[in-house]
């Protein structure tokens, strides 16, 4: 007999299936709840709600565990590069050498944009926000890649996936070049995925570009650590939008928009802005920690706290360690890194943060590494999007392959007016 959860409503008791995931997470299946009880559930922000079954990424928030397809993120970060990680997330297993080479080739043959797309960049003002550029031009891929829009076709899903993986770095780099008035640098397919992006970002036609291998390693690491994180806000957006059977490019554009928010991927840029503000204000840490605790104020410590992690974010641990190593190797100090560590120390000994289990998350230290790599601050979240792209694609693909695939259409608990008589305009008075 399968286990069940018992639910009593009025004088009736209902039995709901009690499911257990492969890591022991238990879920009450409410798939038939409304039909059998007439009730819906309410869970604003979904902290208690599983939107789907998934085999891609496992998080244990209490223990600070993150695994991609069963492999600890620490091991993947140590042993793989970003394209190998993308393959694992999308196809479910680590690739053989042949599979990886074929995957990389399938990507590199699509790195160019249609030449007509360059006119889109020309229409943006120099101060256009890079995440707005990215979501706009990714959306435009649905115009220029019209032969791969039908998401019901496995062949078109595959083609749009390779085009998306290949063109996102080109779009990101072209957007940056446009904003600084420099000529676009075309992708060079003999380079690796991360080398190609850095080359398109920082090379100029008149000089030989000296690629710093440390920065290639740093980019690989940051993209791997940001590659997937189960049903976060932007991945849920990609699944929600993709569930209408729209093409991949449009679903990814919605994920980019969701990631932009400062409570999500935009926190990496917002965290550096916060540290610069504290630095400029005499490094008065107590003032800002107190401000973050003051409920009458909007201010929060950016890069701190997490819906799932009630422990140190394992990605933040790796990023912090790597930042130390990279700064030391380059003989540099970053006052904002010192400040961030002091802020972490103050916050983690404060009862407010301890009671609420608020720790540094993936966005708290990533900006320190981006600064050393001369990535402009307004491009930090674009790089988060580059990292998250294989995760978005993996979830979109998993949704389309699911035998229980359905359009995402949640209910709401209606609390508005009950039926009322219409009042003609002529009779309406201010009192309503
Ligand atoms: C990412 O979901 C993912 O997996 C996301 C992500 C991914 O890889 O996809 O990990 C990437 O988005 C990381 C998070 C980046 N965002 C930030 O760093 C922005 C600052 N953090 C917060 O706004 C907040 O912590 C969230 C949005 C991340 C999580 O918010 P929750 O889960 O809705 O928690 P909450 O707002 O209910 O907070 C619980 C309590 C509240 O206080 P009380 O009402 O209980 O008194 O903690 C407080 C909050 O006010 N709180 C903070 C805080 N974060 C939460 N107080 C001060 N500073 C903070 N940063």
Strand order of the largest sheet: 1-2-3
Q: Which structural class do you get from the secondary structure elements?
A: mainly alpha
Number of helices: 18
* Attached small molecules: s-citryldethia Coenzyme A
Radius of gyration: 24 Å
Helix content: 40-55%
Taking the sheet with the most strands, its summary is:
3 strands, antiparallel
Strand content: 5-15%
Number of strands: 6
General shape: globular
Mean pLDDT: 97
Order of helices and strands: EEEHEEEHHHHHHHHHHHHHHHHH
As residue ranges, the low-confidence spans are: none
From the N-terminal CA to the C-terminal CA, the straight-line distance is 58 Å
Please, could you describe this protein's structure?
It is a single chain. It is globular and about 80 Å long. It has 432 residues and is mainly α. It has helices at residues 33-37, 73-79, 82-91, 97-108, 118-122, 130-144, 154-179, 193-202, 213-225, 233-242, 248-260, 267-280, 285-293, 314-329, 335-348, 351-355, 362-372, 380-401; strands at 4-9, 12-20, 26-28, 57-60, 65-68, 71-72. The longest helix is centred in the middle third of the chain and has 26 residues, at 154-179. The structure holds s-citryldethia Coenzyme A. S-citryldethia Coenzyme A binds next to helix 17.
Task: Break the fold down into its secondary structure elements and pairings.
Layout: E1 4-9, E2 12-20, E3 26-28, H1 33-37, E4 57-60, E5 65-68, E6 71-72, H2 73-79, H3 82-91, H4 97-108, H5 118-122, H6 130-144, H7 154-179, H8 193-202, H9 213-225, H10 233-242, H11 248-260, H12 267-280, H13 285-293, H14 314-329, H15 335-348, H16 351-355, H17 362-372, H18 380-401
